[in-house]
Specification:
Length: 188
């Protein structure tokens, strides 16, 4: 292990040790149950296609999909915004959607709705590919007024949390701690 990688590991360990646990694993499980019930009520009879945005949506997908006891198809995509561009339509597609979306109900899973530019652009792309409806589900909706669109809200949300740097349950700190079982905020 190089000195730089050891320094980074020391840093991420210290960040976790000092972080504030905002949401316990038990509270996350309850939020997931509530989300799954709402998603089931809305989509159980629509033959939906569920797209997970990588890498953040991976943990949410793994936790919510087994709670959706109805026929559905699962796929993933990986998109990031170009540099610091604020125009939500400029995406760097690492993995593009591959399924036929025509006349399908599509649910997009992601870890967090922060500003929402990437989520908005992904959803617009899926609509342009012919989806009859595109809905969003996020574990966390971060509460602030810097959203890509005024009053932007996910269709399904597990938790509303304050405007702090969050990690755990899919959200990362420098690529680490997506696997943390709770949701943590950096020490203020």
């Amino acid at each position: 292990m190089t000195h730089d990688s050891q320094s980074l590991l020391d840093e991420v360990r210290q960040v976790r040790a000092e972080a504030d646990c905002l949401v316990s694993p038990e509270r996350i499980e309850q939020a997931l149950d509530d989300m799954a019930a709402a998603i089931t009520e809305r989509l159980a009879n629509s033959n939906p296609l569920i797209y997970t945005i990588m890498n953040g949506g991976l943990v949410l997908a793994g936790k919510i999909l087994p709670r959706l006891d109805f026929p559905l198809e699962v796929a993933y995509l990986h998109a990031t915004r170009y540099g610091h561009a604020m125009n939500g339509t400029l995406l760097d597609w690492r993995v593009r959607p591959t399924q036929d979306l025509r006349d399908r109900s599509v649910l997009v899973l992601d870890d967090i709705l922060d500003e929402g530019y990437t989520l908005l652009a992904v959803m617009e792309h899926l609509r342009n590919e012919g989806a009859s409806e595109v809905l969003s589900a996020v574990l966390v909706d971060k509460q602030h007024n810097r959203k890509a669109q005024p009053d932007m809200r996910p269709d399904f949300c597990g938790l509303e949390l304050p405007d702090r740097f969050l990690f755990g349950c899919g959200m990362d700190y420098k690529g680490y701690w997506r696997n943390a079982p709770g949701i943590y905020a950096l020490k203020e």
